[in-house]
Amino acid sequence: MTDSPAAPSATRVGPCTQRRTVLMALPGIVLLPGIASACGMTPTPEPASTVQQTTTVPSTTIDAAEIPVGTAKQVKAGDENVIVAQPAEGEFVAYSSRCTHQGGNVQVVEGMTLRCPLHGAEYDATDGRNTLAPAPRPLDAIPVAVSGDKLTLG
Ligand code: FES
Predict the structure, then answer these.
(1) Which domain holds residue 73?
(2) How confident is the model over 18-32, as pLDDT tens digits?
(3) Which of 42, 102, 140 to mutate to test the pocket of ligand 1 (most atoms within 8 A of CB)?
(4) DSSP bridge partners of 151
(5) What are the TM regions of this chain, as residue ranges (predicted)?
(6) Alpha-carbon distance 92 to 115, whole Å?
(7) How many domains does the chain have?
(8) Residue 66 C-alpha to ligand 1 middle, in angstroms?
(9) Is residue 93 part of a domain?
(10) Quick check: CB of 107 below 6 Å from ligand 1?
(11) Contact 127, 93 (CB under 8 A)
(12) Rounded to an integer, what distance in angstroms lies between the CA atom of residue 99 and that of residue 114?
């Protein structure tokens, strides 16, 4: 008796990638430039890095109570949108909400799940990692200082 081969692991892709795969599989289909660019199908250079980077925002203080354990929230820091999360009791993290794909404003979907409304990329607010294409790298991290019941971003 031989062991059956393991099932291939599933790879999650965004809606544009799925649409592109279907269109490319159809014989005789020629994509018009407008359709191709709507899903970012035009050739783009490889990202310089797939590693999380760090950025800063204007120093902003918020109440820690605004961010319950296991949740994330988008707040303003100057003109910048920032995702602040508390993945574990007393552990606060923050990220730029600027999508690493093409700069969309990443939103909190539920709990620690983040999604970009432009092309469907997803991130995990626990550490900012990109969990669903087309995001090429994690969200940029922003320093957070905890002082009593206050959080200072930036
Ligand atoms: S800008 Fe394309 S997924 Fe965010």
Answers:
(1) 60-153
(2) 554 444 455 554 444
(3) 102
(4) 62, 146
(5) none
(6) 20
(7) 2
(8) 27
(9) yes
(10) no
(11) yes
(12) 10
